[in-house]
Predict the 3D structure of the following.
Amino acid sequence: MTLYVDSSALMKRYIAEHDSEVAEHLLNSDPVLITSRLTEIEVRRNLCRLLDPIAAGKAKQRFLSDLDSFALVGLDAVTCNEAARIAEQTLCRSLDSLHLAAAGRAGPATTLITFDVRQAQAARSLGMAVIGT
């Protein structure tokens, strides 16, 4: 199984939240994880928003180290065009549509790990496999 990890799932690795243990178990279940460059932006922003500067710096270092082991989907024109189509079809939020398009680029056997209920609903409406919520 190929796992695409969205920001809501990956954040649980760096900040103790509800379902952090579940997320960590899911992240450890596959040796090759996939995400997009969007995740890098969202996680770094949220670490700075939610943690004090020292803790955010440490979490950012750990995150960047972890990110090196991910396969990354670029946000190229094909992915952005697909995201626009998904947004039109599902009326989901723009950033969610980018995650869903990136997950789709990873291949039809990809399962989305998310703890974002609205994103999960949009993914399921597109026929994507979803775990986490």
Summary: The longest strand covers residues 2-5.
